[in-house]
Amino acid sequence: MSNPGYDEELREERAYVAALYERLDRERAAARARYHGALGQTGVTPGEREVDVRCRAREAARLDVADNGLCFGRLDALSGETTYIGRIGLFDAENDYEPFLLDWRAPAARPFYVATAARPENMRRRRQFHTVGRRVLDFTDEVLGRPGDAKRGDAALLAAVNAPRGEGMRDIVATIQAEQDEIIRLGHAGVLVVEGGPGTGKTAVALHRVAYLLYTRRERMSRGGVLVVGPSPLFLDHIGRVLPSLGESDVVFLTTGDLVPGLRVTAEDRPEVARLKGSLTILDVLAAAVADRQELPAEPVPVELTDVTVEVDAELAAEARAAARASGLPHNEARAVFRAHAVSLVAERAVAKIGEGWLDREDRGLWADLRADVLAELAAHEALDVVLDALWPSLTPETLLAGLYESARRIEAAGADPALFRADGTAWTVSDVPLLDELVDLLGRDEAAERAAARRRAEAEAEYAAGVMDLMQLDTEELDEDVQLVAGDLLDAVDLAGRFTERDPRDLAERAAADRDWTYGHVVVDEAQELSEMDWRVLVRRCPSRSFTIVGDLAQRRSAAGATAWGPVLAPYVGDRWVYRRLTVNYRTPAEIMAVAGGVLARFAPDARPPESVRASGVRPWSRRVADDELAGAIEDFVRDEAGRDGTSVVIGPPGVPGTIPAAAAKGLEFDAVLVVEPERILAAGPRGAAELYVALTRATQRLGVLHRDPLPAALTGLAEAGVPARSGHRRFL
Ligand SMILES: Nc1ncnc2c1ncn2[C@@H]1O[C@H](COP(=O)(O)OP(=O)(O)OP(=O)(O)O)[C@@H](O)[C@H]1O
Questions:
Q1: Beta-ladder partners of 708
Q2: Ligand 1: which of 202, 208, 648, 650 to mutate, judged by most atoms within 8 Å of the beta carbon?
Q3: pLDDT digit string (tens) for 387-411?
Q4: pTM
Q5: Is 363 strand, coil or helix?
Q6: Which ligand 1 atom sits nearest the alpha carbon of residue 556?
Q7: Angle, CA 111 vertex, CA 108 and CA 116 arms, to 5°
């Protein structure tokens, strides 16, 4: 039915939004021109040009993100002022930079998300646009300030949560809800813990908070960038597009298995081993394992000098070891102290032996001369070096830890549980990563190895710079005079290499991910309940300012080493100075499915409350009992059936069932349709089986089915029993 007033307004809104796109296109063209101008710049050093190009590229990228849904709403204030809200800000340069379009992160945009009928925040009306591409299809209005007369306009939200899922997560800027907005804009600079059941938007909120922080604290945040830690590469891939769609790129995405540069670990330990390695008590084991590598010789070792043979025995080594340990330096750095003491003791013994019968220690001058000769010989004594290196070896975290795991004797010497033993010491698991990171500090720097590596790097850079200079010289005819001067007269290759290092051409994310000592401005931890105490130590090292957004759900924890409460995990780093917020509404799972999942939750975590679904789908989840030989066919039927529908689907099952993925792999993800296979075996698999089943059941945005061979577990109720489907080409279970 046509409504003349509405139609007229819709025409006006369409014209306004079309004008915004025209302005965007003009700004884009200008930004691109500035970018190309920067690329072709002459008369500046390569470093300066690099910085300028980067800055222009960022400016162009900011404008490129806004093609879909540039403007998604409008706020009308009681004062009569009208503000359009969108993904980015567009301003009128000729009119005091008045906004044509206000960035959703700007403080003035806040009422768009939080104003309600009861608390209108000086607003009269909120208007939400429904857009496809660049076109406004229609809009819905919500009148504020008249409680009882208006209710929250949920049309846009329901359209968003009902839409079939595509590839990866989408941003939610157009429909952020008030309880979420409060968290996104929270001013607290320290540790913020956000807890909420499945589908409450924890991940979405954490990512939008990153965009908000990068917008409001650009200066501080962009220096170190932001680190987002997630449970699996698949999950990081799933969420990877949200921040770029909001125009943010200075963000590093890593799993806990990637936290040590150079390693990409996904393998897991058995739960009991993961628990051992995840607990802080492993710190004593690591310290003992390092001490165990500071050895004493079982038998005295002879060291031949020109005039005499001296023995390095346990007594001598013990004295040198005590001095090195007393230095308080990390193992590799204390090597120099150990060596200096040992050499000095060897020299004393040599002089005493050479002077036996004719030289008295009271003969200070002569004794010192002889000692100096011996020391000179010992300074380049390879055999002694070999002996001392064996007693106090230079260690890397990898050699130390692999050596520990592979040796039952060393495990015992370190006072560790024999369960740590494994035949291949270097078969790294995610639980080893924080231990390797800890050992970087415990072992300290091996300066000789570092000097060699630095020399190799410098040579490679000089070679690269020499190549650049060759190119510059080739092009001299085309270059301005001052650049020719720079290229030919002022710089040599090494100098130029120095400049390249200063202005590292890699972008922030690359540099940060490759540098173990990088410190981030902010860290987001998703599925934080899975992290062990040792994982937290690594993360705090990466963010000494302790600026964290931690999102998780203790009820979904599957790791044996994970958190059972937030307080004890955080106490070592921030005491009780952390802020807690809860999300309560489930935007993913329809009420019918949540009722089933809630039954499971009630059995294994009676104190936890499931979140309330924002909608019902009208579709009941189903179950079907199958015989052993029917299972594979039934899975295939589901997959085929879903392939004909919009959206995504997944089959989750216990280990060893072909065509299924484990619940752990689906963590944090969502699918339009989920088939859970053999829930009874998922429940029985491991100490956290019930949490795994809960995670599996709560991945669905629309449809849930369950296939079982044994009777359904008692906790799984409320499923509609589906009959055997007709054997036709295209089957439906409901
Ligand atoms: N305000 C919102 N508007 C539209 N969609 C939303 C909103 N909040 C959350 N969603 C959607 O709900 C779904 C679940 O969000 P998200 O994955 O962030 O939840 P979660 O709390 O991290 O879940 P889990 O604990 O199961 O990993 C996503 O599709 C997300 O886009």
A1: 625
A2: 202
A3: 999 999 999 999 999 999 999 999 9
A4: 0.86
A5: coil
A6: 25
A7: 170
Its ipTM equals 0.99
Strands (E), 87-157: 90-92, 98-103, 123-132, 135-143
Does residue 52 contact residue 41 with C-beta atoms inside 8 Å? yes
Query: What backbone phi and psi angles, to 5 degrees, belong to 208?
Result: -70, -30
> Which of 162, 183, 200, 693 to mutate to test ligand 1, by most ligand atoms within 8 A of the CB atom?
200
User: pLDDT digits over 280-298, tens only?
Assistant: 999 999 999 999 999 999 9
- For 290, the token pair is 């390092």
Question: Is 207's C-beta closer than 6 angstroms to any atom of ligand 1?
Answer: no
| Whether the CB of 562 sits within 6 Å of ligand 1 | no
Cα of first residue to Cα of last residue in the chain, in angstroms, is 35
Atom of ligand 1 at shortest range from CA of 206? 18
Amino acid present at 321: R
Judge whether 273 and 431 are in contact, CB under 8 Å: yes
Which residue has a Cα nearest atom 27 of ligand 1? 668
161 lines ligand 1 (CB under 6 A): yes
Q: Of the candidates 565, 566, 600, which has an alpha carbon nearest to the alpha carbon of residue 691?
A: 600
Q: Is the CB of 176 under 6 A from ligand 1?
A: yes
Once rounded to an integer, what is the mean pLDDT over residues 241-247? 87
Binding-site residues for ATP sit at 196-203
pLDDT band at 732 (very low <50, low <70, confident <90, very high): very low
Nearest partner of 115 among 147, 88, 71, judged by Cα: 147
Whether the CB of 198 sits within 6 Å of ligand 1: yes
What is the per-residue burial (b if ≥16 Cβ within 10 Å, else e) of 249-277?
bbbbbbbbbbbbeeeebeeebeeebbbbb
Dmax over Cα atoms in the chain, in whole Å?
Answer: 121
Please check whether residue 402 is in contact with residue 423, taking contact to mean a CB–CB distance below 8 angstroms.
no
